[in-house]
Structures are given as structure tokens and as C-alpha cells.
Amino acid sequence: MSLGEFDLIERVRRFADHPAALGLADDAALLDGLVITHDSIAEGVHFLPADPPASVGWKLVAVNLSDLAAKGANPLAALLSLTIAGDGEWEELFLGGIEAACESYGLALIGGDTISLPADSARVLGMTAIGRAGEAMPKRSGGRLGDKLWLVGNVGDSAAGLAQLIADPRAVGPLVDIYRRPIPLIALGKLLAPHANAMMDVSDGLLIDAARLARASGCAARIDLDAISLSEPFRDLRGDGLEERMFAATGGDDYALLAALPPGLDAALILSSLSPPSLACVGTLRAGQGISLVGDGGRAIELPEHLGHEHRGISGSPVADRP
Questions:
Q1: pLDDT tens, position by position, 10-20
Q2: CATH number of the domain to which 199 belongs
């Protein structure tokens, strides 16, 4: 019998019954005031073999901190799982990226583990990040009917940068930089958390993550593609039409924040002191199930075959799936 990712999660859920696990329904655990998360990245799945090792180290820290940002947590410490495949030169450069990111965000590396792999093995690297919970920790499941869905940060840039690299491994530019060195929105998350009924980071694509938040909250979601803010580098490279907006909404690897706020709250006022990179109200939580799309002036848009990136092995990875 073949078991997929969600079958295995259900298997784990049968014994991961400590209250801190939050039913495995979220991206982090909450234990004695500490927000704890773990993310792994794999060569050929989450980063390209030719990506600079230092950027891979930065990205591993950033994707973990993005989970803390979505819970409004203040980063404290981390544990690193390091696999060594080869003579150690790649790993030395990788650790330089880890060090730079930890210094940038005040994250103390307090331990971890190392293992050696056979030469030329694909690298799989992991990190556990620990943060201090704030006055409120919004879960995925707290959304309410009528809540507005606010997107903080751009979507589509990382997917566009990766597409550039797949077409030309020597490609450079702002979109490639965003793919390789995402910026976790920690300060913005801390400001939003006390006001958000639900919040999560957007890592697998806006549409699939909005559907997950809505499902966890017992609601349906409607997303307006016209409302998505696209960055200037993205628009300069790919354009601003419906097809490009769908690409941005499903591309993944964004590490933006998606927050469900009561309809009377304006995220722009909450975040006014920090000037977020982009901010848009992109949808609403409604009665029902699933997700629906509007765009092109308010008309209903058919859902794409894939809402984002589901972890189905290499054929379903961000690197393998994207054109």
C-alpha cells in the first residue's frame, strides 16, 4: 500500500496528541509560551543543485522564521540538522549563509546534529526554530465568516526567479535574489498577530494556502485575483494579465503572510509604522467549503488544476513542477 504525505500525517496525528501539537493543524507548536517549528529543504526539491550554498543556508533559516512570523513570535534560538556529502567545501559555504541569517534576525544557534552521506547524495537539511509567543498566537483555524483576507508581501516573485534560473542557470536580477534569499516578515507578523483571527505564511502558493486556512476555519474562501499586488520586477518580466496573476497566486515559495482580519479592521493602519513591502485585501471568508476565484473585473474564474504545490515527491516539488 502506498501512503502519501497526508496519509502519513494522519498516521502521526494518532499519537501526536499532546496539547502543544495543536492537533498538527498548524505550522508550529505552542509549548509553555514557546512557538516551535521545523522545516526541511531538499536539493532538487526546494533548491537547485547549482544554487550558491550560502543562499541555501540563508533560505533554510528564512523559511523557519517565516513560520514564527505567522504566529507573531519573537525568534529566540534554533537547532540545525546538517548533512555532509563530499569534502565539506559546500557545507562551509552553506554555514556562512546560516550564520549571516542568524545574525540578521537575532537567532541563536544552540545545537543540532550532523550526519555524513555517500558522496554525490542529494542534500536534505533541516532546522528547528524556537520563538517566544506574543500576547496572541493566531492559528490557521481561527478565521470567522466575513473576515477579510489580507496578503502582506508579494507573491510570484520567487517562482518567476526560479523560472529564470531554469531557463538560464546564469540568470541574475531581483527575482532571482528573492527566490534565493527570501525575507521573513517577522516585525509585520508581530504587529498583525494581536488583531488577526487566523494567520499563516504563504509558502506553497496563495490559493492553496488560502484554501487550507479556510478549511481549518470551517469556511470557504473567495480570492480576487485583480486585488493581488504584483511587484514591479515581476510585471516588467512577465506582465500583469490574468494568466500572470494566476501564475503568481499558485507559484509558491513566497513567504508572505496571509491574515484573516475582522471586516472593521484595516491592515494598512495596523502596519502603518513599518511600511510593508506590499499589502492588499485579496479575499473574504464565506459560508461553505472550498475556494472560489474572481478576476478580470469581477467575473468568476475557473480554478486551476493545481492550486499550488502539494508535496507529492519530486514530481510535485516546486523545482520539478515549475516551467
A1: 888 888 878 88
A2: 3.90.650.10
